[in-house]
What does this fold into?
Amino acid sequence: MNSFRRDFLASLVVFVIALPLSLGIAMASGASLEAGLISAIVGGIVVGALAGAPLTVTGPAAGLTALVFGIVQTHGLSGLAVIGFLAGLIQIGMAVLRGGRFFHLLPKSTLEGVLTAIGLIIVLGQAHVLLGGGVPGSSLSAIVGAPRLLSGVTFPILFCATTAIGTLLLWRRSSKLNEKVPAALAAVVVATIASLPFDLPRVEVAALGPHAREGFALFWNADWGRWLSYLAPAFGLAIVASAESLLTAKAVVLLAETKRRPTECKLDRELLAQGVGNCIVAPLGGIPMTAVMVRSAANVNSGATSRRSTVMHGIWIALFVGAFAGVLRNIPLSALAAVLVITGLTLVNLGGLLDEWRKHRAAAAHWAMSAAAVVAFGLLEGLVFSIVAYYVATAYARAFRRDSDRAPTPG
It folds into this structure.
């Protein structure tokens, strides 16, 4: 099989995975569904063409939903456009200053804790959409509003939700089925067909051209006088998005090596590509994006050999939305929420936390503390708190060991 055919087939697999996930992540982020599709297209075509790790796939990411949702709630969609653009500029600046190497200083337990917190936030928020409600404004309101939501669940909503989750879990158990058709796509298709007799909230997707023009108008007419107040969330967004992108790039290199398809990994070029992508997508009304492990792993496992597969998957999304937008409008929102709830539970990674507790209790404790800090204080504040706490605890432990070494031996 020649390399072009391999890339072509891999691009189709990534396309069918990226389409429902991009819609769901946009919904969870508090943005329009069109915003997720625009980000997937730009991430595939633009970032794919520039990426320092050619086999990675960029698009809307579950790991950014909590941060993006908070930005939308605080600053609105125009503020999100400005903050996303500034985050892209920060990423470009980090690439120019060769900042990729500094991401090695981020503690692994901090990143694990952040992902756990994001998973919890996704589950709490999307459980409401799964059962027919709207996305709550915060994790606390999600918990407080749960009893009222449960009392109003109707049979059609419950039937659609259980169909989607059941299909997803059963499909994942069959490696052969999952290799041929991704479980997320199967769950959305089966739940959509099963829900057709019922009147349920469904996807509303408009043409991307008018959305992009409206997005640019929001960006152009934003309150640029407040740019200083946008810097803190932009910096947090840039750090989290860059960390996820670079970790994904490094993981993809290892995965490609196991497939005997070695690939390059230029971290600073990857940062530059991500920054350029976010600078382009923000004025078009898209949501911030990053390299995504699920799509990247599918790309490698499907036989991709070059960046062509990533670029082509972005083209397929653009063509599909342009030609078959009516098909997307049949998808029930609860089916997308089901995929995101399972994705969130995967990010929580409770099994990994328990395993870490058995091996390294200090690292596991910091993991749990990081997750709690992000849920309690917000993503940026929790991230800073976690990093500071880690290095303070490390410095204290080293000082204590030095003092113990100096202490005279009794007797």
Notes: The chain is about 75% helix and 0% strand. The beta strands are 58-59, 290-291.
